[in-house]
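Q: What residues go here?
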């Protein structure tokens, strides 16, 4: 049995990932459905307005994938069975990232689909490369975010701490950084989740001031998430399980 198969079974062996999976799809699609149902018109970009709800739940799911093992001590048995910690953590991260990618795509196209059904008079056709990026790009953002969450989970090891850091950073800290005198607005443009949002919106109010284009923003976001994961891997190798 391969490590990928083992990690897949471990991920879905408890109820919490299933609940996270359900909420990560239901929240953005349901929220978009409410907007579409009570609006006179809706744009393609607006169909993805609720993606952050799904993103937050996906961060929780990814953090649980690693911190739950530390909580119940199963990570020790895993490392004893497979002494190559890098291979184990790569397999776990790959499974979580693929699940997050699928969640992101289902949430994005589900939100677009329900908007199209409720607003048949709105022009929601996906025809240009930018429009495809706004919809299909949600999946890669979710996948990189999952890698980030696993990295933070490896560093902190506790579910409460990892989830708190991830949610506070993405929802609060990156917005508050703009309030820092002089350097705040410039620093905010380089925040990872601001970059991720720029990749998806690619024409929002901050786009003219952003230092990178949409695809450069995704590359930057990916580099940050992988960097945090690598730091978590190094720390995991240096301390006891």
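A:
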């Amino acid at each position: 049995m391969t490590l990928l198969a083992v990690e897949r079974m471990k991920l879905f062996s408890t109820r919490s990932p299933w609940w996270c999976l359900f909420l990560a799809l239901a929240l953005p699609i349901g929220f978009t459905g409410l907007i579409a149902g009570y609006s006179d018109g809706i744009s393609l970009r607006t169909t993805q307005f609720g993606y952050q709800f799904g993103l937050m739940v996906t961060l929780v799911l990814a953090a649980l994938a690693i911190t739950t093992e530390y909580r119940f001590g199963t990570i020790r048995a895993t490392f004893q069975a497979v002494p190559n910690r890098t291979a184990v953590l790569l397999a776990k991260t790959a499974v979580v990232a693929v699940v997050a990618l699928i969640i992101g795509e289902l949430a994005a196209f589900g939100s677009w689909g329900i908007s199209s059904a409720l607003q048949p008079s709105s022009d929601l056709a996906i025809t240009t490369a930018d429009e495809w990026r706004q919809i299909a790009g949600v999946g890669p953002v979710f996948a990189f975010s999952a890698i980030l969450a696993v990295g933070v989970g490896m560093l902190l090891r506790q579910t409460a701490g990892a989830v708190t850091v991830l949610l506070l950073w993405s929802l609060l800290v990156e917005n508050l950084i703009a309030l820092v005198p002089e350097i705040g607005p410039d620093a905010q443009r380089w925040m990872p989740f601001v970059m991720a949002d720029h990749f998806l919106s690619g024409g929002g109010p901050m786009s003219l001031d952003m230092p990178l284009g949409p695809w450069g923003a995704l590359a930057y976001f990916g580099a940050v998430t992988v960097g945090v994961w690598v730091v978590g891997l190094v720390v995991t190798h240096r301390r006891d399980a």
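A: Context that may help when evaluating the design: DSSP finds eleven helices and no strands in the chain. The chain has a mean pLDDT of 89.
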